[in-house]
Specification:
The protein has helices spanning about 1-10, 25, 30-45, 60-70, 130-145, 160-165; strands at about 15, 20, 55, 75-80, 90-95, 105-110, 120-125, 145-155, 170-180, 185-190. The protein is of the alpha/beta class. The structure holds guanosine-5'-monophosphate.
């Protein structure tokens, strides 16, 4: 998605540890016009997958998932990162290693909100080593739900997780694909879907 690449080049900041900061439009301050563009693009790319539920992880995935859910007419579910009184009983859970915080945590969803009748689109802001997405896959597997696609705003291709998922036959779509990045340069991978 050309717009995403332009936005990253204009507003993104590269921090130590291969972190791309996109707080000005995606991770803290949310550009709602741009969010609408992203949602339209994801809705176009996954229009034929019969999505019933959009699944993400708190917190930065929620805005994107909500916008996509509204476009696809699907409900939106986010996995929590902490056991709170809101997560009752024996939730589905999976371990995840956080890329940005370099620590382990659990992703959790109540059994009430994910079931074997769901056709799930997993959505997240970034794909790096694939830990977050794999955790969400595990939750779906535990619920017997079918994952019909994965939509990522920004894929860091140099981590290899995206290509691994594609090789496994996962319908993965990333709005921007970063082949390499250094302090003063970002190289994008271009695929057929780029607009
Ligand atoms: P993974 O689990 O694929 O290794 O990393 C994806 C998760 O880590 C995403 O949920 C995202 O929040 C975070 N993440 C990974 N790389 C970046 C990055 O470069 N910038 C930001 N802001 N978050 C990232």
């Amino acid at each position: 998605m050309k717009l995403m690449e332009e936005k990253i080049l204009r507003e993104g900041q590269i921090l130590p540890g291969d972190i791309l900061k996109v707080g000005s439009f995606l991770n803290q301050n949310i550009d709602i016009d741009f969010l609408g563009d992203m949602a339209n693009e994801f809705a176009r790319l996954f229009a034929h997958e019969g999505v019933t539920k959009v699944l993400t992880i708190e917190a930065s995935g929620i805005a994107i998932a909500t916008a996509v859910g509204m476009k696809l007419g699907a409900s939106v579910l986010f996995a929590k990162k902490h056991r709170t009184s809101n997560v009752d009983g024996q939730p589905y859970s999976a371990p995840v290693h956080s890329f940005t915080h370099n620590e382990d945590y659990e992703v959790l969803v109540s059994r009430d909100y994910l079931s074997s009748t769901d056709r799930v689109l997993i959505v997240d802001d970034f794909l790096a080593n694939g830990q977050a997405v794999n955790g969400l896959f595990s939750l779906c597997e535990q619920a017997g739900a079918q994952v019909v696609g994965v939509g990522i705003a920004i894929e860091k291709c140099f981590s290899g997780a995206g290509d691994k998922l594609r090789a496994q036959g996962v319908h993965l779509e990333s709005l921007a694909m970063i082949e390499s990045m250094s302090e003063d340069n970002i190289v994008f991978r271009r695929e057929d879907n780029s607009r």
